[in-house]
Amino acid sequence: MSRIEKFISKFAIEFDDFFLKLLPKKKYSQKLHDAMKYSIKVGGKRLRPLFLIEISKIFNVKKIMALRAAAAIELIHCYSLVHDDLPAMDDDDLRRGHMTCHKKYDDATAILVGDAFQSLAFEILSDKKTHPNANVRCNLINELSKASGATGMVGGQMLDLDAEKKKLSLSEILMLQKLKTGELFRFSCVAGPILSEQKNLKHFEEFANNLGLAFQIKDDLLDVEGDEKQMGKKTKKDLSRGKETLISYLGKEDAKKKSEDLINDSKQILKFYGKRANRIIDLTNFVISRNN
């Protein structure tokens, strides 16, 4: 395991301890509580929270504020995975080597888990513990709402479902991937500047655009080339459903080159921040070197 992989693994363990404590203390339904906890404990690299927290460090944001915003973005991500795995969507039985929520429990419970995660994300952002300035809290809520809704992740998922067995142009593929994946990364990258009450988000908006697309290209490459045991889920799903991606449009080698160019552009943006951005550069390199 490389140095950055060890760092990511250590962060994920520490973050999940904090993350689980944010679940509601009142358990009106033990089944719902257990299913929410199960869906979090399935795990993951927690890259979106990690980028958010590391970028926040550049702006000297208090750790608890960054952690709470990071939990909000991860709740949205977890909700999207629970819903994506449902039979009406991607119909997956495994997530990170574990039974998906609807397989462990049932479809209705999985839907409610996703709903509860989404609500909890905005409850966290609206709390004064996240930031004492109400304008900052409203800005975070506004950004996450756009990133996760019809003009963001949900819109991208709809385009993705509609794309099966359909010929797409390059611009349509880029738009689909920007919405489906890129917009949540955008929130992860601009939340730190927002928490520090910065007005200019341009650097990290540009960084996020490159990072999100590079991440999705790597995901698509892993779907084609990845090992199912290592991935902990089915592979070659896009091919079996006739979905067009940058891999099918450009070919594997050109798609890899595209992702490398995007990462190099991202690192150029980070040079403005000098040594303070070293950890973020390591994470950025990891995005296209990961094997699951």
Structure description:
This protein has 292 residues and is mainly alpha-helical. It has a single domain (3-287), classed as Farnesyl Diphosphate Synthase (Orthogonal Bundle). It is built from 15 helices and two strands. The protein has helices at residues 3-20, 30-41, 47-58, 63-84, 101-104, 107-126, 134-148, 153-162, 170-195, 202-225, 228-231, 237-240, 246-250, 252-270, 278-289, and strands spanning 94-95, 98-99. The protein has a two-stranded antiparallel ribbon with strand order 1-2. The longest helix has 26 residues, at 170-195. It is globular. The mean pLDDT is 93.
Shape: globular
End-to-end Cα distance, whole Å, is 13 Å
Class by helix and strand content?
mainly alpha
Question: In total, how many domains does the architecture comprise?
Answer: 1
| CATH C-level name | Mainly Alpha
Q: Which architecture would the CATH scheme give at its second level?
A: Orthogonal Bundle
Overall pLDDT score: 93
What's the CATH topology name? Farnesyl Diphosphate Synthase
Beta-strand percentage range: under 5%
Helix content: over 70%
The count of DSSP E runs of length 2 or more, i.e. the number of strands, is: 2
Fold topology:
Blueprint: H1 3-20, H2 30-41, H3 47-58, H4 63-84, E1 94-95, E2 98-99, H5 101-104, H6 107-126, H7 134-148, H8 153-162, H9 170-195, H10 202-225, H11 228-231, H12 237-240, H13 246-250, H14 252-270, H15 278-289
Antiparallel strand pairs: 1-2
Helix pairs in contact: 2-6, 3-4, 3-9, 4-6, 4-9, 7-9, 8-9, 9-10, 10-14, 10-15, 14-15
